[in-house]
Amino acid sequence: MKTAEEIFEILKNELGEIILSIDKDTPTEPIISVEPLKIHIVSKFLRDNSELQFDSLMCLSGVDDANGKKVKDNEGYDVIEGGTLSVYYHLYSTVLKHKITLKVSAPREDAKVESVENVWKCADWHEREAYDMIGIKFLNHPDLRRILMPYDWEENSHPLRKDFKVPEFYQGMKIPY
Amino acid sequence: MALKTETMVLNMGPQHPSTHGVLRLELEIEGELIVNVKPHLGYLHRCFEKHAEAMQYNQVIPYTDRMDYLASMGNNFGYVLAVEKLLGIQVPERVEYIRVIMAELQRIASHCVALGTNGADIGALTPFLYLFRDREYILSIIEETCGARMLYNYMWVGGLSHDIHPNFVRRTKEFTSYFKNTIVELDNLLTYNKIFIERTANIGVLPAETAINYGATGPMLRGSGIKFDLRKDDTYSIYNRFDFDIPVGQGLQGTVGDSWDRYYVRVREMEQSLRIIEQAIDQIPEGDVHSAIPKRIKPPKGTVYSRVENPRGELGYFIISDGNTNPFRVKVRAPSFVNLEILGELCKGHLIADVIAILGSIDIVLGEVDR
Questions:
Q1: pLDDT at B222 over 80
Q2: Cβ of B318 and A150 within 8 Å?
Q3: Which of A12-16, A120-124, B70-74 has the lowest mean pLDDT?
Q4: Is the pLDDT of residue B236 over 70?
Q5: What whole-number distance in Å separates Cα of residue B341 and Cα of residue B335?
Q6: Of these four, A89, B205, B242, B244, which has the most CB atoms within 10 Å of its CB?
Q7: Which of A61, A64, A148 is opposite residue B42, by nearest beta carbon?
């Protein structure tokens, strides 16, 4: 069993630059930040390293950080410009019984994160959900489609974004009906 | 010249009686054999997570009821534990005991539905009716205390909505001694029924490594022979005070990790839940269930990931607080959502009729898959 600080040290020594920082200022568990386009290497290392053995991905959550600046669009609605979208990975080792939380942040306008689908299979649907709800694109994902919303939902419309605007019509039907 | 063969696509659902809700499966078949299964979700999607962002922390609890509506107590439990962790609240002993008893009663009720429908799907209708009768017994006990049969809103942050009804202890004790007979009856009727074994043993075998890689939890994972239960391995509330075993699949009728093993693990789990209830029911201390409920819930900035062992597996709540009275983000890691992902892998090479047996043994609740 290792603490988050020890795991951070191991990662920093082995992988260097791509591990950004550790945030210990949280009430529960510390969070390790990683480069969004290098998350695959980090995940593979965490899974395969004999000291760490993170064989299970508990949860993968997409989050709209809403840390950009609020502006009005032409129709007078509030939209957020700039800032980041994040993905949180909660990992657990069923062998060594330790946990860790990883976080990647990508720019809101063009959020691209590497997929970890071939490291942990269960990331497949979680990533599809994060894409569907927040609009984060997962590179190298084999089947990145919407999962909970209808397949023909307006492209670029992602309900869990903080500036989501409910469309007036869906397939000719009025919303809210 | 070889005969030209091609696969056919068959649509199952969304209104198919054995898909346990509105799940659509696109089966690619070659004759009777499954080549590929593509699940299509979202028919029950109501974006619980978006609702939660517009609610205060305590207003979210009724919404959690409606996710896994067969195990609402477990959903409440997970959510309030997560918020309490964020707030750093310690709840009174009495509350802890009542919560554990309620969660275990709910686990039995939920497994009753799981086992009953698993049997009913493949033709055994009698045990289904018996189990629903006994589930109703549990629901009436719970109803007496909190006023609702299924959607309770019973566990609150820091406490409970009501103290237990004066009859609760007596009726729960009556139930635990009564229900043991039902399990014997169930074993005779279904568990060791030759037809049932033929339909489920060696069907949909899930190897342990695949199960972990796919994130399977609960009876799904334990059916594959892995002794992993959050109540023991990542203990929460007061589960470490009770003495109970974790049943695992042993391949008694076929291979480890087949549909029968998953079924069997659930039956044995009900016995263990009875054990926990019997230990806890005599120890409920006196106290006030409202004393630790905060007047206003305003957690500090930060994140929390908290998980509990629900009847269907690991239910996780990831909550981000930005220091307001509303959660900034609530993400639910629903056990059915993750467990359902393996369906395609399990069905490959089996017959169409086996899809029903496998789906029944996964035990999904679509309210939770689609949230």
A1: yes
A2: no
A3: A12-16
A4: yes
A5: 10
A6: A89
A7: A148
Look at the alpha carbons of A13, A15, A19, A22 in this order and tell me if their dihedral is positive or negative: negative
> Cβ-count burial of B183 within 10 angstroms (0-12 exposed, 13-18 middle, 19+ buried)?
middle
- Across A81-85, A115-119, B111-115, B274-278, least confident range: A81-85
Return d(Cα A103, Cα B135) in angstroms, integer: 43
Q: What is the pLDDT of residues B245-258, one digit of tens each?
A: 999 888 888 888 88
Burial A114-151 (b: 16+ CB within 10 A, else e): bbbbebbbbbbbbbbbbbbbbbbbbeebeebebbbbee
CA distance A176 to chain B (A): 13
CB of B151 within 8 A of CB of B71?
Answer: no
Please name the residues in contact with B210: beta carbons below 8 A apart, sequence gap of 6 or more. Answer: A121, B342, B345
Cross-chain Cβ contact A97/B316 below 8 Å: no
H runs (alpha helix) in B71-92: 72-87
Tokens of B275: 């054990």
Beta bridge partners of residue A59, listed in sequence order: A90
The arithmetic mean of pLDDT across residues B352-362, rounded, is 88
pLDDT in tens, B113-141: 989 988 888 888 888 999 999 999 999 99
List chain B residues with CB under 8 Å of A88. 303, 318
Give the C-alpha separation, A91 to A168, whole Å. 40
Radius of gyration of chain B from its Cα atoms, rounded to whole angstroms: 21
Q: Backbone phi, then psi, for B67, in 5-degree steps?
A: -80, -75
Contact by Cβ (8 Å): A169, A145 = no
Contacts of B226 in chain A (CB under 8 A): 94
Q: Do A147 and B41 touch (CB under 8 A)?
A: yes
pLDDT at B58 > cutoff 70? yes
Amino acid identity, residue A63? V
Strand partners, A92: A56, A99
Question: Which structure tokens are listed for B14?
Answer: 């969304």
Q: Where are the domains of chain B?
A: 52-335+352-369
Predicted local distance difference test score (pLDDT) of residue B175: 92
CB-based contact B338 A122, cutoff 8 Å? yes
Asked if B152 and B142 count as a contact pair (C-beta separation under 8 A), the reply is yes
CATH class of B52-335+352-369: mainly alpha
Q: What is the mean pLDDT of residues A159-168?
A: 84
Nearest-neighbour CA in chain B from A13: distance (Å):
27
The whole-model pTM stands at: 0.89
